[in-house]
Structure formats: structure tokens, C-alpha cells
Amino acid sequence: MSEARIIPITPRATPRPSATGQWESRLTASPPLALYVHFPWCVKKCPYCDFNSHGVRDEGIPEAAYIEALIADLEGALPQVWGRRVHSIFIGGGTPSLMSPDGLDTLLTAIRMRVMLDPMAEITLEANPGTVDAGRFRAFRQAGVNRLSVGIQSFNEGHLQALGRIHGRADAIAAAEAALTHFEAVNLDLMYALPGQSLAEAEADLAMAITLAPQHLSCYHLTLEPNTAFAANPPVIPDPDASADMQDLVEARLAAAGYGHYETSAFARPNRECRHNLNYWTFGDYLGIGAGAHGKLSSHEGIVRETRPRHPSAYLAARESGAFVQERRTIESAELPFEFMMNALRLNQGFPRRLFAERTGLPFEAAEAGLLKATRQGLIETDGERLRPTTQGRHFLNELLMLFLPG
Fold it and tell me: What is the distance between the alpha carbons of residues 205 and 22, in angstroms, rounded to a whole number?
């Protein structure tokens, strides 16, 4: 285990532009810290998925070796986060619900022994309806998971088959009901604009989800991402007008059912937002461990992004050398306005002006040029203290973010 050392945030002089006109980032306080753990295996790869996931092969999942590597990875990273409280853990994938309850218990126990975990920390596990049952959910809850995110995607048999999912409608409903029995915080993932989907079918999926009454819903528009099976052999999907009608339907139906639309694809009952994801969107820090995991960490030396080896075999091999960090780079001051806005402008309620300086170490003036352009184009509105995307800004988020690109 690495020797303990503390990297504090040391307040420095008020930032000012350099001779080249670029602002220098000078943080005065540490952002909140979260932990992300990546589990890269799935039963099989879905044709739309561009995440770092790998189908299970005949030899199975090397669970014990992988958990040992995760623990070693965490230990090697401790000097960067020593003394900082971890407010949330998110175990994503892949399909983390393939992990055995004993393995999950071993992992969470090891994390608690090594980091200062908030007693009220949100601990989320992603689950596939085709890999779980009520007994497994109960064991996950006993291991310490207190929030479950279930990848439903659709309740329509035909659409589930088109998406390559390993579960059916009955499995989806049973998994959601079991999750809600054992967890007080449950998210259901839904997708719309699916191959061959009609507006009525999208509404039926929403109606079923609302009937189940989870605390949180994530509703994603299907996109054909590069390097996926769907990109290589594109299915016929609804046209832009039909997709927009589905998006309007999602927002209207969920608002009527009492879900607040707090982020581009996220809807929650009052005070049931995902705290881990809110930390991302408010430009908080997160340590990422596991195959292909990304992290963002701040210190008085600057804000860095890290990545781990993407393939599980390469990640496991790093256990021998301890060289888990494949790439580490400092975010340049000129990039920080874009990096911050790329996250914060996903929030429908936007952000307070002070947050920009707190999380980037830059004065608000460093972002004013982009904000002025966005305001003139009707993409951002402000009450003086808080900035938020307009309806037009939310619909044209990519165009809005282009205004903050360096140079």
C-alpha cells in the first residue's frame, strides 16, 4: 500500500491573465469526491452499446483476480485522495450484477477500509434484469448497496429483441418489482426512438414505468454510436420529427407523474436525484478504478484526468507492475470553461455563478465571452446569480457547448 501523504489545496493569489491573455487556474478548495468502479463483463454485447463492455467467454469471469486488481488500483491511487471524504460510489459496467454477492461484499469492505467513506454515502450498482433475482438483490443490499440502477430499456418484447437484450418483458417487470422491494432508491433505464418504435409504443413503456413508481428514471434517445454493431448495420429508427415527439411525450408524461426533469436524460421524484451523477455534472472530482475507468482529480497542482487500461486482460496484467494509470493529463486553463460547461449545462436548472470559480479555479470572466454569445443567441438565460440553458439551449446543447471551445 502506498505511503500515506496529504495533497492539500493551497490558496494562492487571485488569478489574473498571463502575458498571453490566458487565465491561470488556482483552486482554493477541494471539490466533492466520488468513486467510480468499472466492471467490464456482460453476458453478451448489445448492438447499440459503445461502453467498455466485453461478453463473458467460456472460461468465465476471473472475479477474484479482478477484485484483487481493483483493490490494488485503489491503494495505488490513495495518495491523490488521502484525507478526502468519498460521498458516493457507483459500480457500473458492463453488468456489475454478474458479480457474486460475496465478491461485492469483499470489494465494498476493502473500499471502506481504505477511504474515508461518508456514513450516508450513496452506493449504486447497475443491474441487468436477465442476471438477477430477488435473493440476489437482497444479498446486494446486505453487502451495502443502497441504490440500484436497472437497465430495463423497454417493456416491449419485440423492441427488447431488436436491442439484443437478454431479458423479456416479464423479467423486466419482475426485476423492477424486486428492486423496489429491497431498495429505497431505484433507477430504471428506458430508451426511446427504438427501431420500428411508434409513439404509442413509447407511451406504453412510459406508462409501465410510471406504474412501477421508481424514485428515478433515466430516459435515453437511442443513438447509433460509432464502432457498434448498429453503426455497422444500421436499423430503421424513427425520423427526427417522430423522435422529437417521443422526447416531448417523455417530458410531459413524467412531469405529470411528479418526476422533475433535472438533467438532459434524468427524471426524479423530489430530493431523489442521483447524487453521484450530480457530482459529475457540477464538475466535482471522481476517482475511477477498473478496466477503462476514467477519473478527474483536483489539487493545488491542477486538475488532471486519468484513464485505466481498457481491456480486462491489460488491466489484470497491470496488477503485476502496479501501473494502473494508462494516461494522465492536466486540463489546461484554456480548456476548463468548455470542460465545466460540458457538464454543468446538462442541468436544466443550470448552476450558480460562484460554482464556476469554485470548481475550475478561474474567475467568472474566463467564461464570459462564451456566455455572452450564448445569451445573445437565446441559448442561455440568467437571473444574475444563476445561469441555465433555455429550452432552445437544451435542444441544441452541442451548438451551445461549441461557444466555449478554446481558441
Answer: 50
Q: In sequence order, which residues have a C-beta less than 8 Å from that of residue 199 and are 6 or more positions away?
A: 242, 245, 246, 249
SS3 78: helix
**Residue 198 grid coordinates:** 411508434
Question: What is the reported pTM?
Answer: 0.93
407 residues of the chain, pLDDT tens digit each: 444 444 555 544 455 555 455 778 889 889 999 999 999 999 999 999 989 999 998 789 999 999 999 999 999 999 999 999 999 999 999 999 999 999 999 999 999 999 999 999 999 999 999 988 889 999 999 999 999 999 999 999 999 999 999 999 999 999 999 999 999 999 999 999 999 999 999 999 999 999 999 999 999 999 999 999 999 999 999 999 999 999 999 999 999 999 999 999 999 999 999 999 999 999 999 999 999 999 999 998 899 999 999 999 999 999 999 999 999 999 999 999 999 999 999 999 999 999 999 999 999 999 999 999 999 999 999 988 899 999 999 989 999 999 999 87
Are the CB atoms for 55 and 94 separated by under 8 Å?
no
User: Letter for the amino acid at 24?
Assistant: E
Sheet holding 185-192, edge to edge: 260-263, 266-268, 216-221, 185-192, 147-153, 116-127, 85-93, 33-39, 285-289, 294-299, 302-307, 327-330
**Cα gap 33→405, rounded to integer Å:** 26
> Among 314, 317, 303, 309, which residue's Cα sits nearest to residue 289?
309
Report in angstroms the alpha-carbon separations of 139 from 20, 91, 135.
58, 16, 6
Residue with cell 460521498: 87
* CA-angle at 9, arms to 8 and 14, nearest 5°: 155
